[in-house]
Specification:
Blueprint (H helix, E strand, L loop, with lengths): L8 H26 L6 H27 L5 E11 L2 E9 L1 H24 L6 H20 L3 H19 L6 H32 L7 H4 L6 H13 L8 H5 L4 H10 L1 H11 L1 H6 L1 H22 L5 H21 L3 H20 L4 H11 L9 H4 L4 H12 L4 H32 L3 H7 L19
Antiparallel strand pairs: 1-2
């Protein structure tokens, strides 16, 4: 097992600031809401700015240390629990990849928070949105600075919770709740692979620390990198688990920019980057990751070209670029993949924040170009026969039938299991309290768990 030395106090302080500032902001706002003392919009905005700026200062101090030549260093925070020979340590990792994602998280989290102050002015879910925003920034910092798979999993699950709740932000409408349910089922299904991979990793190597992975990678079974790949595919919206991402655009535009364009979709690619030694030791999994990325990039490009709304088109564009990042990581181009993630996150966040004013922005671009509107991809279309173009157009409108297949093979079985467990719970609780389960079902209506259709995304409210 890797021996953890004490990290320099400056690294510990920087890591705690990067993670702790948004976490403290979340806790303070959560306590105020619970006790019925929800602060006003100005106070919430000030608190969010304080948290994100402090997080950025902490991340910047870590980046400065790395630039000065500090090697990859673990920052131990203690032991989570011990059970026999299994020791789960809370450890962070400071290296180039970690500080890059940490700074990107703090910068984009702060910018989106500042944008949301006026965008969500007088929205009845104002406090709830910023509560989830702070939780997301803290969770993403945990993922970025995690020194082991165990710590990463903590932030990973918090990302899934905040993502689901923000998709359902506009609860007065039916579609946001249904689309949030679809995303939740996708996350949970793929997280089974991630969780099993971590359990096997512990069993076979005795630790899930990333610095130890190169030494243990060749001794791990192929199921470990395969499970990590499945977990990454769900969060990164890669085929066949990509149908939730266009539906996620039902949430507010700021959350769409931060989650589904900038940071959350890159969490899967970042996990794959951390698992790259295991991919190198198991070339079959690396080939599978490249195949998943290439197929997603191709399908998402075709489907994105027939989307009727800008947010749906941007969602498929994000899938395309993240798919290419998967290919880069599978080929061992780790530096290029990291640069690609940063550049794509910044570009996609800007485009999604501009989505509400896209028509005015488009008119300005056309005017600047002298009234000439370019059309991308026309040269590629001319290479295809007309019959094939029409066939691909129809397939793209139907998203190549992938959504229907996932509904049939994943969503419906999960919902059927949920209904069965709900009925079983009602029966047992009725027996314990002497209540007829049929009476309880009449008193409490079941939620609408009808499987989701697969039309082109509506683009949400923005």
């Amino acid at each position: 097992m890797h021996d953890v030395a004490f990290a320099p106090p400056s690294l510990l302080a920087g890591a705690l600031a990067a993670i702790g500032a948004p976490a403290l902001g979340f806790l303070a706002l959560a306590i105020a809401v619970v006790v019925g003392r929800t602060p006003g919009e100005r106070t919430i905005a000030w608190g969010t700015r304080w948290a994100t700026v402090t997080s950025l200062v902490g991340a910047s101090s870590l980046a400065w240390a790395v630039l000065r030549g500090v090697p990859p260093t673990e920052v131990p925070l203690g032991t989570w629990f011990s059970l026999g020979d299994v020791h789960v340590d809370l450890v962070l990792l400071v290296d180039r990849a970690a500080v890059t994602m940490s700074m990107l998280t703090a910068v984009l989290g702060g910018l989106v928070g500042h944008f949301s102050v006026s965008y969500l002015h007088r929205d009845r879910g104002y406090a709830r949105f910023f509560l989830l925003l702070l939780l997301f920034v803290g969770a993403m910092q945990v993922v970025s600075l995690a020194g082991s798979g165990d710590v990463l999993f903590l932030g990973w699950e918090a990302l899934g919770i905040t993502s689901t709740l923000l998709i359902a932000h506009f609860g007065e409408r039916r579609d946001p709740g249904r689309n949030a349910l679809r995303a939740f089922i996708t996350y949970r299904t793929c997280d089974v692979g991630l969780l099993l991979a971590l359990v096997l990793w512990h069993h076979e190597a005795g630790t899930t620390r990333f610095l130890d992975l190169p030494a243990h990678a060749s001794g791990l079974s192929v199921l470990v990198p395969l499970g990590l790949l499945i977990g990454a595919m769900g969060k990164a919206a890669q085929l066949p688990f990509s149908g939730w991402l266009p539906r996620a655009m039902e949430g507010p535009t700021p959350s769409s920019a931060l989650f589904y364009g900038a940071l959350s979709v890159h969490a899967g690619a970042f996990l794959l980057l951390r698992a790259s030694p295991a991919l190198a030791a198991h070339p079959t999994v690396a080939v599978a990751a490249a195949a998943v990325g290439l197929s997603t990039a191709l399908v998402a490009t075709l489907v994105g070209r027939v989307q009727p709304d800008v947010k749906g088109a941007l969602a498929h564009a994000a899938m395309t670029q993240v798919g290419l990042v998967f290919v880069e990581i599978a080929l061992g181009l780790h530096g290029l993949a990291l640069i690609h993630m940063v550049g794509h996150a910044i570009l996609r966040a800007r485009q999604l924040l501009q989505a509400p004013g896209v028509l005015e922005h488009d008119r300005a671009l056309v005017a600047a170009a002298g009234g000439v509107r370019g059309r991308t991809g026309a040269h590629l279309e001319r290479l295809l026969p007309a019959a094939l173009q029409r066939r691909l157009y129809g397939l793209a409108l139907d998203r190549f039938g992938l959504d229907a297949a996932v509904d049939r093979l994943v969503v419906r079985p999960v919902l059927a299991l949920a209904r069965a467990l709900d009925d079983l719970d009602r029966t047992w609780s009725g027996d314990l309290h002497g209540v007829d389960p049929r009476d309880r079902r009449a008193e409490v209506s079941s939620p609408d768990l009808t499987p989701l259709p697969a039309p082109p995304s509506r683009g949400g409210e923005g």
